[in-house]
Write a structure and sequence with these properties.
This protein is α+β, with helices and mostly antiparallel strands. It is built from three helices and seven strands. A hairpin with a 2-residue loop joins strand 1 and strand 2. The longest helix is centred in the middle third of the chain and has 6 residues.
């Protein structure tokens, strides 16, 4: 399966992490990678990797403490993001991790 084929099965607000040869090439929302004008597929990064073969694909949850910085804990992948889900003092995000 090519990366473009996989991305077309996902939804706009989905979070992605894409690795090529053990190097992270993208972390963020599908729209930030693949959507031009919010609706059509395209863009520099998308065009660069769209024909790559997907070697592996998995869903990876990220559970972090809301006050990770002041408690000197490991930072989330995207610390500038606000909390999506709160479980008392914890927050969780789900990333589709794709290896090409």
């Amino acid at each position: 399966m090519r990366l473009e084929e996989l991305l077309r099965t996902l939804q706009n607000p989905d979070l992605l992490r894409i690795f090529k040869d053990k190097t992270e090439v993208f972390t963020g929302y599908l729209a930030g990678l693949a959507l031009r004008n919010g609706t059509e597929f395209g863009g520099e990064l998308f065009d660069k990797y769209k024909d790559e073969t997907v070697k592996s694909f998995r869903c990876v949850p990220e559970i972090t403490h809301k006050r990770w910085k002041e408690l000197n804990l490991m930072q989330p992948l995207r610390p500038e993001e606000t909390t999506d889900f709160s479980f008392s003092d914890l927050q969780m995000k789900l990333y589709y991790t794709i290896y090409i």
